[in-house]
Design brief:
The chain is 68% helix and 0% strand. By secondary structure, the protein is mainly α. Keywords: Cell cycle, Cytoplasm, Nucleus. Pfam families: GCIP_C, GCIP_N. May negatively regulate cell cycle progression. May act at least in part via inhibition of the cyclin-D1/CDK4 complex, thereby preventing phosphorylation of RB1 and blocking E2F-dependent transcription.
Length: 312
């Protein structure tokens, strides 16, 4: 067996990697050039991807590189990571917080992917079969490939986030609507259990753990409370879809702060809908449901004000 001492520099070369923070941007007197920024970010992502490939290629077979060669490769990787973080920091906040969050998220994915790659290379020596599939499976390449797909302005970034919110609320509404129509939220689960046990048991009461507790079903009072819940989720879905269309048709790229505010509210509506949908499943706590309804109604009121501002 080949000793792992030649890979030791991975353990010693662990400089503190700066991680991008929300809201931070480097102060500069230079006028921001959007075209230059995106070209630099694309080039930095390509550089990271190449360094990851080079590192993996060197450690995919024997003999392993010397300590000096490993140090050199790691320094190149570290320089590439610092470079792409520096590009992120050059994106001013006035270009849009939504856009900066997307760039930051992708940058963090690249940093985390590279850290994972280095860890795998250190833990699994070259003779380990796991290293043979690193290029195809490691997340650093996937993250780098996402950079060209990032929206190029805050309006496009806002539309992307709004689309995600619409899809999430739509899924929640459809799930809730199906459960209400069937009047049995756990019917799918019960049917699966019945099918799995029908061949072996003739008596449901003999099935160990078969859910016969009435807490699995809605009472008449529960079903009356569900009606306004369903209406609120439907209204949330319609409102999100409406704001998505308005932003696409009437939103202006220079409405940076307003678009950010809209996305912030949308980011709250989707989780509030999830909380509401989850709270209606039995056994239902009516107080929790009413609290979630009140929260949703408050968010919708704020959302409607944002709609009026956008229309103005």
């Amino acid at each position: 067996m080949v000793p792992r001492t030649s890979a030791f520099p991975f353990a010693t070369f662990r400089p503190p990697t700066p991680r991008p923070q929300v809201g931070e941007a480097r102060a500069t007197t230079e006028e921001f050039n959007r075209e230059v920024f995106w070209r630099r970010l694309d080039e930095a992502a390509v550089k990271v991807s190449r360094e990851a490939t080079a590192l993996t290629t060197v450690f995919s077979g024997l003999p392993l590189p010397s300590s000096q060669e490993t140090q050199r490769l790691c320094k190149q990787v570290y320089a590439a990571i610092k470079a792409i973080i520096a590009v992120y920091y050059s994106l001013p906040k006035d270009q849009g917080i939504t856009l900066r969050k997307l760039v930051r998220g992708t940058t963090l994915d690249i940093v985390d992917g590279m850290a994972q790659l280095l860890e795998v290379l250190f833990v699994n020596p070259a003779q380990s079969p796991e290293n043979n599939d690193l290029i195809s499976c490691n997340s650093v390449w996937v993250a780098c490939q996402q950079v060209p797909r990032i929206p190029r302005d805050n309006k496009a970034a806002a539309l992307l986030m709004l689309t995600k919110s619409v899809d999430l609320v739509k899924d929640a509404y459809e799930e809730m609507e199906q459960a209400v129509e069937e009047c049995d939220p756990y019917s799918g689960l019960l049917n699966d259990i019945e099918e799995d046990t029908s061949d072996n048991y003739n008596n449901e009461d003999d099935v160990l753990g078969f859910p016969t507790n009435q807490d699995l079903y809605w009472s008449e009072e529960d079903q009356e409370l569900i009606i306004p819940c369903l209406a609120l989720v439907r209204a949330s879905k319609a409102c999100l879809k409406k704001i998505q269309i308005l932003v696409a048709e009437n939103g202006k790229k220079d409405q940076v702060a307003q678009l950010d505010d809209i996305v912030d509210i949308c980011d709250e509506i989707s989780p509030s809908v999830d909380d509401l949908v989850l709270s209606i499943y039995p056994p239902m706590c009516h107080l929790t449901v009413r609290i979630n309804v009140s929260t949703g109604q408050a968010l919708m009121s704020v959302f409607e004000m944002e709609l009026e501002c956008l229309l103005d």
